[in-house]
Write a structure and sequence with these properties.
CATH superfamily of chain A: Winged helix-like DNA-binding domain superfamily/Winged helix DNA-binding domain
Largest sheet of chain A: 3 strands, antiparallel
Helix content of chain A: 55-70%
CATH class of chain A: Mainly Alpha
Strand order of the largest sheet of chain A: 1-3-2
CATH architecture of chain A: Orthogonal Bundle
Radius of gyration of chain A: 20 Å
Structural class of chain A: alpha+beta
Oligomer: homodimer
Number of helices of chain A: 5
Shape of chain A: elongated
Number of domains of chain A: 1
DNA sequence: TCATCGATGAAGTCATGACTTCACTATCAG
DNA sequence: CTGATAGTGAAGTCATGACTTCATCGATGA
């Protein structure tokens, strides 16, 4: 699967405040779907939809035991995210370095 | 201003592929608005709108000299982003640690 | 000075996406 | 079996947001 799409899903998933609230909650520990819905004051259906998005982005992993689905944080998505930021930071900082070489050619710090 | 809103703007800004393309481009070095528009095959107006979003999220800084507006990466937004991820990672990893004390098992990626 | 170029503002279109409700399935307790 | 519980699927509503076009403005160079 294209890495572009992957990153897309990641940022799109975290772009929604409700979904970030779910992530916040799951950072504290696993929860059921209805357990997530309660403090958010939205329907269980809505939460389930958000969970699909979060799972597709690999930010959350869920498994169903009996009739209850347990949701927990999935580190992969976050790792991917960190890498994206690190890559970009590296890119523009490298450029600033080269620029520094030219502008401050009589000895810099 | 609430930090929630700030993070919101950040993820929402990067949730759009076109805006990420702009960030990609600017990581390589500064550019004018029309310089950004050309490879994206959208109107200059559209790019200007995206730039407003990116500036509000502190991911990009722009300044106008004469009739040309020069756009460059702004590190603050990215720093904010990194901190958000680090905070969350810390939170759930701390929890896994406590759990690990009890269960003593597994390692992850 | 005048034509052009880079950018901006206003307003409209169109798709997407965050919800809801309602109907339904599957599990568990009595 | 019966009834409550946990979640899923389908379909509809409503707002937001990513574009466009058109008109305009200020800087610039011939």
């Amino acid at each position: 699967m294209s890495p572009r799409i992957e990153i897309d899903r990641l940022f799109q998933a975290l772009g929604d405040p409700t979904r970030r609230a779910i992530v916040d909650r799951l950072s504290l520990g696993p929860s059921s779907v209805s357990g997530l819905a309660a403090p958010l004051e939205i329907t269980v259906t809505a939460v389930a939809q958000h969970l699909q998005v979060l799972e597709a982005a690999r930010l959350v992993r869920t498994e169903k035991a009996g009739r209850v689905r347990t949701c927990r944080i999935a580190p992969e998505g976050f790792a991917r995210l960190e890498r994206w930021i690190a890559d970009h930071r590296a890119q523009w900082e490298r450029r600033l370095d080269r620029l520094g070489d030219v502008l401050a050619e009589d000895g810099d710090d």
